[in-house]
Amino acid sequence: MDEKEQLDHVRERVIETIANNMNLYGVTDSIGRLYGMLYFQNHPMTLDEMKEELGMSKTSMSTSIRHLLELKMVEKVWKKGTRKDLYKAEEDWHQTFIDLFTIKWRSGISMNISAMSRAIAELEKIIESEDLGEEVRTAAKTDIEKMNAALQYYEWLNRLVDSFESGKIFDFIPKENNKE
Amino acid sequence: MDEKEQLDHVRERVIETIANNMNLYGVTDSIGRLYGMLYFQNHPMTLDEMKEELGMSKTSMSTSIRHLLELKMVEKVWKKGTRKDLYKAEEDWHQTFIDLFTIKWRSGISMNISAMSRAIAELEKIIESEDLGEEVRTAAKTDIEKMNAALQYYEWLNRLVDSFESGKIFDFIPKENNKE
DNA sequence: CAGTACGTTCAGTTTATTCTGTACGTACAT
DNA sequence: ATGTACGTACAGAATAAACTGAACGTACTG
């Protein structure tokens, strides 16, 4: 068997594994495959080249790349002389991981925090009502407790994401493992 | 307006927010809603009660609960006297977060690590071939480099998940925030 | 000013996922 | 044993997501 073929075959298998893994990040297989392909390509690619390489429509390449751009897994590259847009894969996966978390989680967290806070305030107002059945008051109180617990969690999560974003997480879990 | 209604309304809104957020964890809306509902219910529930409460089929409840069980977001509760299965929501969200990560990521990580390792070994074997075009050799070498970088990332991720699973992450990011 | 080479929007189609109702198996009760 | 109450497998229907090709807008080219 030809070595070039072997090489391609190994590459493809690895790309498939990467794509598969990227499901965990909330990314579809085909977008994952696109990323994997770009990662092993040693030069930025145009949409047409991607389309060619993956045998998919240009539309798909366009939307997939946009998706990857939003997640900062891919960046646009400028090259004079060509009118086509060029894209390359972000190579630092630690950074990719962090960006992904930051982008996807941050807004969700803050939405939850504000929703919980608002809800707690409303429940506290309800509790103040004079004419209130005892069982309703108890229910409101336990709800408030649960929401406070949730709030505490979201704030913890926020601090976790902070430590990702600032890179401080690497003080705690270093990129290089010295231990073994 | 009746206070009981208000209470229910607030609760529902919060549940909706939670469900929405759980998308980030790779869980569908309706499963998220089921979890949220269970979280605010102050007693374990049967499948029939859930079905009633959410207005969905019992089949859905059964499969959704199984899903939540797998993620350890819900646990089965025993109560003598009834033949029905009872389920309650895991209340500690920090723990839930950790379990989720551990369960969903661990296997993916190790699959990737082994896939990468195997691929690297194969490429190194290819490089050893005497009759090998120079450009193929170079390509193989850069691929190996990229795979090594990926490997380093996965090992980092594994150590991160370790710190979640062991609870050591809380030494670094404490559950209670003392700072502000 | 055409003319061409791009990327992207949009509507329709295909494919995958979620949801439901019926049917089934098991375990307990009588 | 017979009946009943439960959870779940399974197949089909409803819903959502991914993918495509044609049409469009923009920007560069001659």
Automatic annotation (TrEMBL), chains A, B:
Keywords: DNA-binding, Transcription, Transcription regulation. InterPro entries: HTH-GbsR_regulator (IPR052362), MJ1563 (IPR026282), WH-like_DNA-bd_sf (IPR036388), WH_DNA-bd_sf (IPR036390). Belongs to the GbsR family. This is HTH-type transcriptional regulator. The lineage of its organism: Bacteria, Bacillati, Bacillota, Bacilli, Bacillales.
